[in-house]
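input
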Amino acid sequence: MGSVKTAVSMRRPLFEQLEKLARQRNMSRSQLVAEAVEEYIRRQESRELIEKINAAYDEATPDELDLLRAMRRRQRRILEAEW
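output
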């Protein structure tokens, strides 16, 4: 897939952190920013999916609510472990 060049403005302290991390990981700033954006998009998509699932369970039975709570706890642990 082709690449697209873009300009991004950010505060200097954030840029300096970006530079430092890119050097530490031996990668370009562009690679690091692209990876960060991809991860952000994946997380947003996951959150949206969870919201849709939660909406579907709004009228759940007590047994279904217990299961839903367990699923939410598990999902929360998974998301927290990724960060």
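quick obs: The longest helix spans residues 29-56.
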